[in-house]
Design brief:
Largest sheet: 7 strands, mixed
Strand content: 15-25%
Low-confidence stretches: 418-443, 540-546, 548-653
Family: Belongs to the ESRP family.
CATH architecture of the largest domain: 2-Layer Sandwich
Keywords: mRNA processing, mRNA splicing, Nucleus, Repeat, RNA-binding
Subcellular location: Nucleus
Mean pLDDT: 78
CATH superfamily of the largest domain: Ribonuclease H-like superfamily/Ribonuclease H
InterPro entries: ESRP, Nucleotide-bd_a/b_plait_sf, RBD_domain_sf, RNaseH-like_sf, RNaseH_sf, RRM_dom
Oligomer: single chain
GO molecular function, one term: RNA binding
Radius of gyration: 33 Å
Number of strands: 34
Length: about 725
Amino acid sequence: MASHSDTLVVFFGATAGANGGKLGSDEREIILLVWQIVDLHEKKVGKIQQRLIKPDTLELTDQCKEETGLTVEELGKADHLDTVLQQFQQAVSAEVKALGRSSYTLCVDGPLLIRQALHPEASKKNLVLPECFYQFVDLKREFHRCCPNAGPVKDLSLPSMLEYLCLPAVNEQLAGVREVKSMMMIIQHILAEPYNHKFSSLEPVKYKFESGACSKTEAVDSETVIRARGLPWQSSDQDIARFFKGLNIAKGGVALCLNAQGRRNGEALVRFINSEHRDMALERHKHHMGSRYIEVYKATGEEFLKIAGGTSNEVAQFLSKENQVIIRMRGLPFTATQQDVLGFLGPDSPVTDGTEGLLFVKFPDGRPTGDAFVLFACEQYAQNALKKHKQILGKRYIELFRSTAAEVQQVLNRYMSTPLISTLPPPPMVPVPVLAAPPFITTASTRDCVRLRGLPYTAGIEDILEFMGEHTIDIKPHGVHMVLNQQGRPSGDAFIQMKSADRAFMVSQKCHKKMMKDRYVEVFQCSTEEMSFVLMGGTLNRSGLSPPPCKLPCLSPPTYAAFPSPAAMLSAEALYQPPLLATPRTPQPPTHSPAPALTYYSPQPQLYMNMNMNYTAYYPSPPVSPSTVGYFAAPPGSMAAAVAQPPPPVLPQPGALVRMQGLPYNAGVKDILSFFQGFQLQADSVLVLYNLSGQRSGEALVTFPSEEVARRAVAERSNLPLSGHPVRLMCCD
């Protein structure tokens, strides 16, 4: 529109649910639109127009019936929203033209009708709104500019503005007409003497979300950031922007969160242009994206920068081309080149600036990860590329997804700054001597180990030694650790402790992708700490690397029975769960060449455990393969001496535990996070407890960042209801 000063269209609407200050907060459909035109130059007003709208769900709340006086029968005879919007545009355009004016602007009592009701509903119903709905005049803001002593904008209402101007209340019974007449009286009064107000401030609504990069040094106001949780994993930044349609998101203000494996975890951080838009976004808590409801919580600027901020010049240069569609490719062959990727995408989806529009993700040592990001100049090219999802390049199928600038930053930051096996910070734990790390494993960050992945399930120690070849002499004594699953069977993974980090690096370079039987085996360099984490029961899955149960917080250590005597030392077998420990073979004499003497675990009395806990404890795999007895010489009794050593003391961990009792049995992590809303907890700080039957026990443990915060949570939330159940809270020592 060329100008907004010619004509104002006073505009009012109501929904089938909450209205007033909560308009649009319950996702109910618009059922009423009322408008009237005023010529700002001639001070002329048009005829009041009222239109009822038939919602898809013919159901009205009691509040709506009381405030509007409308009935389901009346709405059943009305037209749908798209038809009414066409009637509105035609009627207003004709009346403005009859007045000899060229443009008009909507004037509303606050932004909720446009931002929280009309735009979200039109987006869900795939309706294209006329251009006039993308900018409007907020009467409350204009009144505050004209009469600053009337109070803050958020406290203004039509009755309070009429009272300030000493104008009588409008006596009108028809729904919506009363509000439009009141707005018209206020407008005419502030246009006249002594105010002579000029309507000059337009409130814009962004047409689309603008992508862009964010620097870690950029200042981000915490009052403008929210966290959205429960998003479909395939949702893009444009999908999230569509969910918040009507609200203005800052440029590059959508950051999709990734888990430890670089996959989306259903959360996103969204940054708005100001706190007012952030507050309106919070009102969309548990609104729906498709069939899923989305939770919306407050977040901080630090959290946003941690996800979306970056410092890499390579990434900054890649993202410097604005208004590009970003596609993420996953599963690329490690030997794939830029020309291979361009050939795979084909002429129907040309990449922006050729090879400059490609960004390969690599490890710190320069090895490819199999991920890449691609820029496309328009949506059509991106759609053509997405059609190649799961098509073959080389011998691998390639996954393609929509991506964001924040995801590019996050993936590059993660791969360039973290070890090969991501580990989560362990939550506070209570000392349990038997659950301590085995004495033959020392936790350290030196990368003197290698991880073998993709082993044949029939592979044993002998096969690994043959696979290692000349590098066998660099293995530490008792340095081969087979990873078993919970059924006690080989998982296809193994860890090997080398004599130095240089030797481990050499093995990872020379043995990577080498064949064992009919399978190629991947070999990665890693640290002893990472190895220990996996051997202690940590698992790699879609949700990231999960800590073992023995690392989880507990209220009391398990109790044991059937010990030979209180002073008896535990045997080697006692350190491992019986299903994970196979009966060792009798050592066989070598037939090919002399070899070092073999050591093995002799049978010992079985240890029986009575676990009075809500989790099943399990222990790391034995230090050697269950299919063989051992290798390399060791001084007699060395293993017994190692086992006899007292476990290292458990260092205190940061944070404080709060125990929850009386939870509903269907309460999950999201319910508990909602219960503690405002305390900025993460999902991994909640542990729901189960009984021996595998059912939820009605209790949970929550880790808070400090004892002070934990005590405040207990004081504020203890005995408050969760789904009708009063929840008891207590701090754990």
